[in-house]
């Protein structure tokens, strides 16, 4: 079976993944009328560049279920409507990228799962070829500092935006607001060592009003409640030297 992915590539950084669209090669038009398949409706044809289609036709156009193979080895297998990929299908590349799910007008749309050759994956909502709605992105073991991190939450036009939870491989978590793929707005950060911060973030940094409580070491139980500027306690605030549960 073939597979289909609207080929997105991820730019990796320590702060997250910015996912940009990469156009999948559109399927070539059907062959000239003189080459259209005769009855029965299921047939195969090969165009000059070596691409091949095996599947259903209607009125000389791909319609129904079929498999298209590009000359570069990419394949799409699934539903066609009036010569475009429409419905449920699979796409894969020789490099190992795979997508299975919904399509509209030749791009990913609806529910679907994308798997990249490096082990990264995304499962959730798509719109017009981009992650949009609710979904989960898991970084693979070959993703450097992001390896095995998991984000579940809102997406908008290919980036994390809205509300979501990022879980790092070491057990630290962030739950809160996101904007343009960064922690932005109100959120709760819980580190693996027990430290906690709840308050405002700006571009991944503690910024604005927030409360930080130490959960380990000589300052365990101490807390700071006040203003922050770019991850630094700065401005008006209160320092609590001991807290009892």
Overview features:
single chain; 245 residues; mainly beta; Histone H3 K4-specific methyltransferase SET7/9 N-terminal domain; two-stranded antiparallel ribbon; disordered N terminus; MORN; repeat
Q: What would you call the structural class?
A: mainly beta
Tell me the series of helices and strands, N- to C-terminal.
Answer: EEEEEEEEEEEEEEEEEEE
Give the tally of β-strands.
19
Distance between the termini: 58 Å
SS field, number of helical segments: 0
Name the beta content range. over 45%
CATH topology of the domain at 85-240: Histone H3 K4-specific methyltransferase SET7/9 N-terminal domain
Question: How would you describe this structure to a colleague?
Answer:
The chain is mainly beta and 245 residues long. It has a domain at 85-240: Histone H3 K4-specific methyltransferase SET7/9 N-terminal domain. It is 0% helix and 59% strand. It has no helices and 19 strands. The chain has strands at residues 8-13, 16-21, 42-46, 52-58, 61-69, 75-81, 84-92, 98-104, 107-115, 121-127, 130-138, 150-156, 159-167, 173-179, 182-190, 196-202, 205-213, 223-229, 232-240. It has a 17-stranded antiparallel β-sheet, with no helix packed on it. A two-stranded antiparallel ribbon has the order 1-2. The chain is elongated.
């Amino acid at each position: 079976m073939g597979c289909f992915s609207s080929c997105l590539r991820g730019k990796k950084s320590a702060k997250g993944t910015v996912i940009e669209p990469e156009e999948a090669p559109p399927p070539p038009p059907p062959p000239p009328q003189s080459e259209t398949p005769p009855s029965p409706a299921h047939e195969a044809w090969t165009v000059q560049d070596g691409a091949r289609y095996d599947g259903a036709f209607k009125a000389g156009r791909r319609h129904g279920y079929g498999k298209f193979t590009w000359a570069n080895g990419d394949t799409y297998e699934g539903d066609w409507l009036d010569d475009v990929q429409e419905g449920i299908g699979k796409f894969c590349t020789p490099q190992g990228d795979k997508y299975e799910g919904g399509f509209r007008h030749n791009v990913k749309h609806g529910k679907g799962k994308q798997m990249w050759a490096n082990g990264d994956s995304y499962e959730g909502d798509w719109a017009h070829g981009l992650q949009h709605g609710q979904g989960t992105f898991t970084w693979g073991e070959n993703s450097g500092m992001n390896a095995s991190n998991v984000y579940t939450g809102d997406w908008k036009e290919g980036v994390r935006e809205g509300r979501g939870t990022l879980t790092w491989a070491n057990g630290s978590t962030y739950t809160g607001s996101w904007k343009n793929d960064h922690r932005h707005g109100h959120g709760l950060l819980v580190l693996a060592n027990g430290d906690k911060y709840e308050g405002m973030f700006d571009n991944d940094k503690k910024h604005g009003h927030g409360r930080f409580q130490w959960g380990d070491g000589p300052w365990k139980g101490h807390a700071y409640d006040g203003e922050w500027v770019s991850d630094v306690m700065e401005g008006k605030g209160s320092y609590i030297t001991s807290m009892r549960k």
